[in-house]
Here is the input.
Amino acid sequence: MLDDRILFLDGEALVIDKPAGLAVHPGLRGGPSLEDHLYHLRFGFARPPSLVHRLDRDTSGCLLLARNPKAHRRFQRAFEERKVEKMYLAVLEGTSLQGEGVIDMPLAKRSTAKDGWRMVADESGAAAVTRWRLLVARDGHMLVRLDPETGRTHQLRAHAAYGLGAPVVGDPVYGKSGGPMLLHARAFRMEREGKAPVEAVAPLPPSFREAGFGGDDV
Here is the structure.
């Protein structure tokens, strides 16, 4: 049950703090997913909420759901028009970064029989832009703020690995597997015409604190 992970709730929007390890949609092999919980997130409505966007299975944090079809269409349009602000925190390998910058690196999907699929840097791919800022570095790792301006599949993970040369700790595709993947959708904001914005901040998960990064670092 996800009742204790509600970050925002009103008549048309719901933001939850998705736990790492829970897929948004069931995979080809099935298994638990957030879709299993939607019926229990109605909060008095007859209709369950619908997913507006997605987070990778091992990414935690702010996830928006719409509580009716009309709101869903408006929210999707806001994403398409880049009127949604999302801020992520990631623990990256190494201590090579300084300051802040912008990664402007198009991405394309590639698949091989040996490695399966992943996103790769490709000038002919879809535009992908991420702003980043180093928050703190210690013990061989860096806590970095990531602000995506586009929403490509695996964008932050691929940009960290290819654009910064510093993959997300625990990333089994673009870095080294082993331990949890330390990527967290920390904050979400979406303006709404005639209504207060949808705003939410997801607390740092225990995995970040276990890696040596706490609230004082953010």
The radius of gyration is 17 Å. Helices lie at 69-80, 155-163, 206-210. Residues 90 and 183 are 4 Å apart (CA to CA).
